[in-house]
Structures are given as structure tokens and as C-alpha cells.
Amino acid sequence: MKKIVIPMLILACLACEVADAQVRVRVRPGVGYPRYRKVTKRTVVKKIVTEKFKPTVLLSAGYGFPNLDKEQLADFRYYYKGDFAQTGPITGAIDYRFSRLMSIGLLVSHGKTSVPYYDGSNAKVLDGSLDNWAFMLNLVRYMPINNSKVTPYLRTAIGVNTWKQDYIDAAGNKLNYIEKPSELAYQAGLGAQFSLSDNARIFLEAGYGKYILHGGLSFVF
């Protein structure tokens, strides 16, 4: 886990550093004025924050490349796992963007994962599957840049998992008393929204938790 979390944190820091970098803006030359002047992120943010902002509601739907749910499949002492099969997660979110820099809302995800189990003689003895729904508080921090068509952001989401798990042996019998998977659900992500129109956007995101890659559509109301 540390091998993935640390690069994600480094990537987030680099994104912030890029946003902090000074940009050069061309101005009309004249007496007492240089041809170029430097504008820092603080100047850009101050201008954005002071401009009139209308709160909006965002509805989003997306599909992700699965990440950690397969780790919740049970381990058995004398059996080993075969190849995983995973679907989703499919995601849906509703967010209230109350400022240019922040939004808060609900992120819901649904995904499935399954795996066969084999014994020492390579005979299949079990089929295990998990069906997951996750409900998470979704906090998004937008990073203002001098481009109205692209909006980078950082996502932090935390909530609860609900699971349906099944372990069926070769005779078709369901195993009982299997330890329940973790109830903690979380997602961290670094992504960007790309404006298609005043009310529609696509988003792409790299993350850790429910998904490692994620993309979809957002609609603004």
C-alpha cells in the first residue's frame, strides 16, 4: 500500500507546485512598463475569488478501473487464489459547489469482484465473489489556473462499505461464518475537468481506493 500511496502524494504535491509556479503575462509596452510582468498564483487566486460566483450543483457518472476491493476476498489456509475477475466500479455523485475552490457531496460506487480457489493439486475447490456498494462523503478541492476550459482538482472521499459475499464449494454448498470485509470505504484522487459547454464536462482522474483510474461526465445545474 505504501508503494502506491507515496507516489500519489508526490504527484499531488507536484500538481500544487505547478499551480504555484509563476506565469508570464504579456502587457502593452509603454513608458515605465516592462514588456512582460510576473503574475503569481496568489494574484490569480485573488482575482478568481473576488469575482462573482454562482453556486452550482454537479451530477456526475463515471466508470473506473478497480483497485482494492479484491483484497477483501477471504484467504484460506490450504487454498490459493486464481485469476481475479472484476467489474466496475460504476460511480455516481451529486456535489454542491459552494465556492470556486470547494465542493461537498455524496459519492456512490458499485463494483463486483470474484476469484476461484485451488488446492495443492490444482483442483478448483471454491468460487468466491464480492458485490460492493460504497457511500462516501465527497470533498473536492479545485485548483485555479489561468485556463477556463480546464479545472484540476483533488478528491478526498470517506464513508462505508456494504458487501454481499458468497463462497461456493465444488458441491454447490455455500460456506458460512466467513469473516466480513472492511466496512471502511475511501477514495483519494487527482484529476481534471474539461469543459465541453457551459453545462457539460468530462473528467479524468487517477486515484487510490475504489479505483485507480476513473473517467466520466459531469453536468452542471
Describe this protein's structure.
The protein has 221 residues and is mostly beta strands. It has a single domain, classed as Porin, CATH 2.40.160.20. 13% of the residues lie in helices and 55% in strands. Strands 3-5-6-7-8-9-10-11 form an eight-stranded antiparallel barrel. The protein has a two-stranded antiparallel ribbon with strand order 1-2. The longest helix is centred in the N-terminal third of the chain and has 19 residues, at 2-20. Residues 1-31 have low confidence and may be disordered.
Keywords:
single chain; 221 residues; Porin; eight-stranded antiparallel beta barrel; two-stranded antiparallel ribbon; 2 helices
Kindly state the percentage of residues in helix.
10-25%
CATH architecture: Beta Barrel
Rounded mean pLDDT is: 85
Residue stretches low in confidence (pLDDT < 50, at least 5 long) are: 1-31
Overall 3D shape:
elongated
Strand order of the largest sheet: 3-5-6-7-8-9-10-11
Number of helices: 2
The count of strands amounts to 11
**What's the CATH C level?**
Mainly Beta
Total separate domains: 1
CATH third-tier fold name: Porin
Strand content: over 45%
The end-to-end distance, rounded to whole angstroms, is: 38 Å
**Could you state the order of secondary-structure elements as H and E?**
HEEHEEEEEEEEE
SSE class:
mainly beta
The largest sheet, given as strand count, sense and whether it forms a barrel, is: 8 strands, antiparallel, barrel
Q: What gyration radius follows from the Cα positions, in whole Å?
A: 23 Å
